[in-house]
Amino acid sequence: MATRNRIKQAALELFVTKGIIGTSVRDIATLAEIAEGGLYRHYASKEDLAWKLFSENYASLAKELHDLAKAKGDFASRLGAMIHRFCRFFDEEPLMFRFLLLTQHQELPKLRAKSQSPVQVLHKLVTEARKQGQVEIADVDLATAQILGLILQPATFMVYGLLAPGMQRVEAETLAACLKVADSTNHAVMPVLGTGIHESVGTRKKVVDGRAKPGHDDRKIRMSGK
Question: Which of 210, 3, 172, 142 is nearest to 76 (CA)?
Answer without folding.
Answer: 172
